[in-house]
Amino acid sequence: MASRNIVTKAPAWKLTMQKWLYNRSYFPQLGLMRDDVREENEEVAEAVRRLPKDLYDARNFRLIRALNLSTRKTVLPKEEWTQLENDVQYLKPYLQEVIAEKKEKMEWNKK
Q1: Are the C-beta atoms of 73 and 30 separated by less than 8 Å?
Q2: Rounded Cα gap, residues 101 and 29, in angstroms
Q3: Angle at 43 between CA 38 and CA 45, to 5 degrees
Q4: How far, in Å, are 5, 14, 88 from residue 10 at the CA level?
Q5: Residue 25 · residue 66 · CB < 8 Å
Q6: CA atoms of 34 and 5, how far apart (whole Å)
Q7: Are 18 and 85 spatial neighbours (Cβ–Cβ below 8 Å)?
Q8: How many whole angstroms separate alpha carbon 37 and alpha carbon 46?
Q9: How far, in Å, CA of 91 to CA of 51, rounded?
Q10: How far is CA 111 from CA 101, 103, 106, in A?
Q11: What does each of the 111 residues of the chain score in pLDDT, given as a tens digit?
């Protein structure tokens, strides 16, 4: 949802460039979202663990489908590609929560 606000507030030329670059990347062709391809670290792993079941299952489906497509060296039909407007940063609130907790824990341990 937040990405829609960013997309609609951008100037037309920037939006066009953003869409072009987004579609040139490989992950939308596999049906993945940006949060699906985040670099795995301790915070991301914990945020993924905290996802509600429906988001967790949808993420796993996208990852398994992408792995299958990649193994077969193919991509989804263009109408099934993830669109920039539909790419929601579903992991962001959970990741922010994990980072805030980690920061608070570090502050607490300093005392």
Answers
A1: no
A2: 35
A3: 65
A4: 9, 6, 17
A5: no
A6: 16
A7: no
A8: 15
A9: 8
A10: 16, 13, 9
A11: 444 544 557 788 888 898 888 888 899 999 999 999 999 999 999 999 999 999 999 999 999 999 999 999 999 999 999 999 899 999 999 999 999 999 999 888 886
Residue type (1 letter), 7: V
Only one residue has tokens 């341990």, namely 109
Amino acid at 51: L
Residue 89 · residue 34 · CB < 8 Å: yes
Contact yes or no for 90/33 (Cβ under 8 A): yes
Give the other-Cβ count within 10 Å of 76's Cβ.
16
User: What is the model's pTM?
Assistant: 0.79
Token pair belonging to 93: 């609130």
